[in-house]
UniProtKB/TrEMBL annotation:
This is Ribokinase. PANTHER family: RIBOKINASE, SUGAR KINASE. It catalyses: D-ribose + ATP = D-ribose 5-phosphate + ADP + H(+). InterPro entries: PfkB_dom, Ribo/fructo_kinase, Ribokinase, Ribokinase-like. The gene is rbsK_1.
Length: 321
């Protein structure tokens, strides 16, 4: 039976929130060196929270599960979710800090390097997942990543599979994984680096991505979507292999958060009933817009903006409001 929340396109996301501390400069400093930066910004981030914001702005009904500290960064987190109409299942942990991320952005290319300290969210466990089982059961799509402990991510995938909810696993950052997690994944969304770490196949082009995706299918994944940065994304399953080119939406300002935007957008499109290729295209359009803006969560576009890019590129609107 389809519940109301399923028909509305509910997405449940398990992951972390961090406050992004972003520094722009000409280059990274060497060890022991101090250099002058050109700009600084503070804002909401963390893969799970970024994906939640992306999915919510893309029209999904989003529930986000995490842990935060009883501190100023935790207050920023809750204000962010309230502003985006995201239903929060955030446990406040006394005596632990809310996570933070140092983000270096090359002011010329927009490329980034990131250090993440998960803080309270690093203590997420299978018990947190069990506490939101009803939310997961009422969703159409469940999403998780690897910034929180692996046992929590795996339990989330298991609970979603138990309730026949579509699972999307974003294996980021790249970590060693037991093979029993892969059969729990209807979709997996690694980038080139993560794909290589999971498969042992270096990914330098689309053909490499196909070979690596075949390895993931043999491990039990339903469909592999290898994101290829400025090139686009490859959707690869036992039944089809489709390369979706990236959308060029303007000058690249910052690439941090683009992968989160893709996964959040892909999940939102799936939750509304789009086929996997259309959902991949929707995610690419969202990511293409996000890289033209500064920040991670703040860079995520609205549904109207994504639909405009798709329409201008000759595609029917992927989602309706």
């Amino acid at each position: 039976m389809t519940t109301q929340s399923q028909s509305q396109g509910r997405v449940v996301i398990l992951g972390i929130y961090v406050t992004d501390l972003t520094f722009r400069a000409e280059r990274m400093p060497l060890i022991g060196e101090t250099i002058a930066g050109s700009a600084f910004a503070m804002g909401p981030g963390g893969k799970g929270s970024n994906q939640a914001v992306a999915a919510a702005r893309a029209g999904a009904d989003v529930v986000f599960c995490t842990r935060v500290g009883n501190d100023a960064f935790g207050q920023i987190a809750r204000a962010t979710w309230d502003a985006e109409c995201i239903t929060s299942r955030a446990t406040v942990v006394d005596g632990a800090s809310t996570g933070a991320a140092h983000i270096f952005v090359d002011e010329t290319t927009g490329m980034n390097a990131i250090i993440v300290a998960s803080g309270a969210a690093g203590t997420l466990s299978a018990a947190d997942v069990d506490a939101i089982e009803a939310d997961i059961a009422g969703a159409r799509v469940f999403v998780t990543q690897l910034e929180q402990p692996i046992p929590a991510a795996k339990r989330g995938l298991e609970v979603a599979r138990k309730h026949r909810v579509t699972t999307v696993f974003n294996p980021a950052p790249a970590l060693p994984l037991d093979d029993d997690i892969f059969p729990l994944c209807d979709y997996i969304t690694p980038n080139e680096t993560e794909t290589a770490a999971l498969t042992g196949v270096a990914v330098n082009n689309v053909d490499d991505a196909r070979r690596a995706a075949d390895v993931l299918l043999k491990k039990g994944v339903g469909t592999a979507i290898v994101t290829l940065g400025e090139a686009g994304a490859l959707l690869h399953s036992a039944h089809q292999s489709v390369f979706v080119p990236a959308f060029r939406c303007g000058r690249v300002v910052e690439t941090a958060g683009a992968g989160d935007g893709f996964t959040g957008g892909f999940a939102a499109a799936l939750a509304r009933g789009e086929d996997p290729v259309a959902a991949t295209r929707f995610g690419c359009a969202l990511a293409g817009i996000s890289v033209t803006r500064a920040g991670t969560a703040p860079s995520m576009p609205t549904l109207a903006e994504i639909n405009q890019v798709l329409s201008q590129s000759g595609f029917a609107h992927a989602l309706s409001a």
